Amino acid sequence: MPPRSSTRDARTAVDKAMALLNAFGEDALIGVGVSELARRADLSKSTAFRLLSLLQNNGAVERAGNNYRLGKMIQDLGATQETAWHGRMRDALTPFLADLYELTKQTVHLAVLDGSNVIYLNKLYGHIQVRSPSRIGGRAPAHCTGVGKMLLAYDHAATEEVLNSELIRWTPHTITDPAVLRTELEKARQTNLAFDREEIMVGLNCIAAPVFGSNNKPVAALSVSGPVGKFVPESQASLLRKVCFAAARAAAAVAPRNP
Description:
With 259 residues, this protein is of the alpha+beta class. Helix content is 40%, strand content 19%.
């Protein structure tokens, strides 16, 4: 629906601001332009821009280049409090995440599985900046992330939960066919490597590998990501496996996760 022009908009300023926040939809972490947000919220572009500026001043949204995305304040409202196990795992594995960064000079992640989502326990940025929806402490769908697919590959219950639910299409490259995703998860289990090829964000590629715990099952995953055209995921496989193997001893020393 085009922005209202001939009919007075009776919505209050709060109503309009809420309409803008709801307009982000599935693009909340990636970013949306002012014109598109105005269209979705049925507002004029000037009104949308003014409200976005106010929301930005209060931490509800933030700029992402020429786009806007939900800010830390809004994301924190829905964030799950970090568990003691998350803290112990992050502390134990961050040194290895730093090693991975030093070896690759790319953006690297440490994540754990939580149901059908992943939680990013830590993230280090590479020299080649690339837009990415990941945020420390934030969540992302497991089915379209490298770390998520790697951890799903070893978790039958979580895999069935994901495959029996709607696979949201984040980009044109997101796998939404359960049979195709199942095959990819089986391959990830066989090779201990999983890939995200522009599946959560166009222009971003990623490779992930598991960090095994004391029960010989992955307790976390590490990944390396970079921009399409400048980053070849397969080229990082050997370094990634090496670091994950070294990290396994530290992960095994962490007390098991409470049920």
